[in-house]
Amino acid sequence: MEKSARKVIVIGHLNPDTDSICSAIAYSYLKNQSSELDTEPRRAGEINQETAFVLNYFGVRTPRLCTDVSPQIQDIEYRHLAGIDSSTSVHKAWELMRESNIDTLPIVSEKGALEGIVTLTDVSDACMDVLDTKILAKSHTPYRNILEVLDGEMLTGDPDGFVENGKLGLAAGNPEAMEDFIEAGDMVILSSRYEFQFCALEMGAGCLIICSDDEQRKVPKTIQKLASERGCTVIITPKDFYSTARLLSLATPVRHYMRKDVLTFSLNTPLDEVQKIMAQVRYHYFPIVTRGGKYAGLLSRRNLLNMKRRQLILVDHNERTQAIDGYEKADILEIIDHHRIGSMETPAPVYFRNVPVGCTATIVFHMYREQKVEIPQKIAGLLLAAILSDTLMFRSPTSTIVDEQAAAELAKIAGVDIEDFATQMFEAGGNIKGKSAHEVFLQDFKVFKSGDTRYGVGQGSYMSMNNLNAAKELLLPYLPEAAMSQGLADVFYMLTNVREETTYLLYYGDQAQELVHAAFPDAKTDGNVAVLPGVVSRKKQVLPALVSAFSEI
Predict the structure, then answer these.
(1) Which candidate among 265, 347, 386, 553 keeps its CA 20 to 30 Å from the CA of 101?
(2) What's the pLDDT tens digit per position in 5-24?
(3) In 228-264, which positions are buried (b, 16+ CB within 10 angstroms) versus exposed (e)?
(4) If DSSP states are collapsed to H, E and C, what string results for 218-232?
(5) Cα–Cα distance between 155 and 100 in angstroms, integer?
(6) What backbone phi and psi angles, to 5 degrees, belong to 474?
(7) pLDDT value at position 4?
């Protein structure tokens, strides 16, 4: 099956939990096996300890981080123009510009790093340097460039050498007149007359450029021998005096004129930023570089007209507040979720699968079965872990018989014991040793809206009260800072004891205490902590109660 050229991102919500990560990996694998899409699982935040344990247990690599899907330079068709070497002649650069119908060329090192650019304006400046008789020495011009522009042949000297010193002179009239301007090391343009050549050698010329339209293009052996003995380079060209003098200034290497202080963009630069910068400058083309500084291509204003939006498949969420930045500027192809229908809008119809089960992974499992795609052992392990995590090992009121049946079948494929594996997973997730309050807080935290009020609800699941109490001591004093950094009016954090099926709800904010009393009137509270026996589900028990409380106060 031929794959599409564009990569589709399969991604879960911000502050990803185990279901978000594992479902993205499993669904991406399914799409790659059963469709023409070329997908890649990504994550919208750092993974928590529980998820890290699961990925390590089944030997699966952590998905790459993706924090923004706004259109970037890599999403558009830019010009893949090859770079040139800094020793390239100005004449060759002008020819390349004419052939490519472009006024800017990137100058690139042997390793692909961008060194600068040369423009048509720079080429024009080089053409005006005909009055600078020392330009070849100043620019350290390679002799190969001179041979190239003059269609010349080197009779003596090193073709890989460079013009080191001296000025450029023209020998005409009579040989005696040469004594007034030729100095040691100079480059002299002269005719095929023997006496002129001999006189230039006697004056210590560093290079003879002999203009000869004779088809034989011969230089006396005596002259060649003397030149070789005195270290003088001899070049013969079919060009006339005037053409030779004009072309020599174009033999200079582009590095002498290139602009090093160049405005560049990276492949990851957002197009919004690109458009703002382009509106402030008059350049026609902008070099694009990779993060490592290697040249990738050229960008012009015209390229922005061919923007292609990123393509996404969302799993385990359909709320704007939980989606990755820039999602509204991307094309959402599918949404696979088990939560309430949220506030997300799409510009075009999408495949939306929402099933009232305890976990998105359960939905993905059934899609494997429907499409008759074999579930690999590692994928089965990830799906099982997601189900156990989201249903709190089937203790959550969101858990259904469908989740339990899927988990039983997945456990057989993965070759694990459900009870034993779940215990290890929850213990790993509940161990907060060495973690900061910020890290623990973001392990599973989601933002919601009620009217104009933004609030957040997080959750941590624990198998022992020791780990739960340690988390409480760490998080409770951190809630004010968390509310401020997240821009939230109220913050709630569920610390759930899986075995006892009890949640200790931490809260902070303008209306937090009033909301808790309204949502859970029978709960015992002590110092911004409410004890909620029998409450283990954020989605089915805590969130609906808070939504109702917001409408009452």
Answers:
(1) 265
(2) 678 999 999 989 999 999 99
(3) eeeebbbbbbbbeeeebbebbbbbbbbbbbbeeebeb
(4) CCCHHHHHHHHHCCC
(5) 34
(6) -80, -40
(7) 59
- Provide the pLDDT for residue 303: 86
Do residues 17 and 44 touch, judged by C-beta distance below 8 A? no
Phi and psi, residue 279, nearest 5°: -70, -15
C-alpha to C-alpha distance for 482 and 437, rounded to whole angstroms: 9
Q: Residue 449 belongs to what H/E stretch? A: strand 445-450
- One domain, residues 111 and 161: no
Query: Distance between CA atoms of 399 and 176, rounded to whole angstroms?
Result: 106
Task: Report the SS3 class of residue 311.
Answer: strand
CA distances from 87 to 138, 161, 208 (A): 13, 12, 22
Residue 482 is predicted with a pLDDT of: 94
Ranges under pLDDT 50 in the chain: none
Q: Are residues 187 and 80 in the same domain?
A: no
117: how many CB neighbours lie within 10 A of its CB?
Answer: 25
* Cα 309 to Cα 405: distance, rounded to the nearest angstrom: 39
Residue 148 · residue 251 · CB < 8 Å: yes
CB-based burial, 528-544: b 16+ in 10 Å, e otherwise:
bbbebeebbbbbbbbbe
**Side chain identity, residue 485:** S
pLDDT tens sequence across 402-453: 999 999 999 999 999 999 999 999 988 888 888 899 989 988 899 998 888 8
How many residues are recorded in the chain?
553
Cα separation, 220 vs 205, whole angstroms: 17
How many domains does the structure of the chain reveal? 4
Rounded Cα distance, 529 and 511, in Å: 14
Distance CA(205)–CA(167), nearest Å, equals 10
Based on the fold, state whether residues 344 and 417 are members of the same structural domain: yes
Q: Is residue 241 part of a domain?
A: yes
- Residue 80 domain boundaries: 74-125+256-306
DSSP 243-300: HHHHHHGGGSBGGGT-BSS---EETT-BHHHHHHHHTT---S-EEEE-TTSBEEEEE-
